[in-house]
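Worked example 3. Consider a protein that binds uracil.
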Amino acid sequence: MSILEPREELASIAASLRAYLEWQVDCGSSGIPRRPREARAAAVAVQPTTPGVVTSAPEPTIAEKDDPPAPPLASPSSNVRSPAPPSDVPDSFTPGTLPPIMLAESTMPAPAVRAKPAAPPPVQTAVAPPRPLPVLLSEVSSCTKCGLHETRTNTVFSRGNPEAKLCFVGEAPGADEDAQGLPFVGRAGQLLDKMIKAMGLDPEKDVYVCNIIKCRPPNNRRPEPDEVAMCIPYLHEQIAQVDPKVIVALGNTSVGTLLGTTVGITRVRGTWKLYRGKIPVMPTYHPSYLLRPSPQQSEAKRQAWEDLQAVMKELGLSKPAR
Ligand code: URA
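Given these inputs, the predicted complex is written out as structure tokens:
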């Protein structure tokens, strides 16, 4: 199919239309086929507005009713639909007068381009900027949004360096953390520090450590979904402020919450994901799991080290001698 210039295309359509109408008149017709009123109202057909050419759109034939919707206008030529060939003409006709048609092929003006629908106004997503860490810390320390505030000794916000490129996110404080008001200071924390040092990093200067939940769940139970829901906005603001280059998500609760996944840690660990579409996340085992004796323990430790090596590579850190 050859691509015509808009003026040529319109002239061609007009010629076809004239031939079609002449053919109808030859057949004894005194009107043109019409679609039901509702269908016509619904059809946003091409309405050439050029004076003296066509004052109403050629009525589409039945075949056109089943046409796929017209694509968005990209060029004037894509704006014009050809009338269907006579074979598509339905048997029934609505009596009426032929619309006035003044065809002047040689002086055909350029077709009017259907006005593009006005662009919708930009969606205003009123996202409040993250608050400074001291403000968040202060709010967390007096938070009563969930029942965990009733049993806590201290809230647990973070430790390490807020300027760090690497952020570790655990689940929730345990007994030691609740007592000291700092994350990962118990046995799991000691192992975490060993892992951080094995990466050649300083646990106080080179990383930022925090949790999904800021208060200790009684008996170290898993946080309930409503507790996570109440607490997670703090972490989102924390992460936005710290803006780390990489997050290491420790264990199922952290991975599931940060990434919105229910895929278990054994399947997802070691695979790069994105937090909020922009910060790379490395899911790995929680240090508490690595401390627990099990047939998988040594393999899990090896895998966790593999995951941390991937993090080092991502951060451009050289492999420390082991
Ligand atoms: N486990 C965690 O997930 N976080 C802590 O702070 C301590 C233990």
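Take a moment to read the result before moving on. The pocket of uracil is lined by residues 170-174, 177, 183-184, 186, 188-189, 211, 288 (CB under 6 Å). The beta strands are 159-160, 166-170, 207-211, 246-250, 273-275, 279-284.
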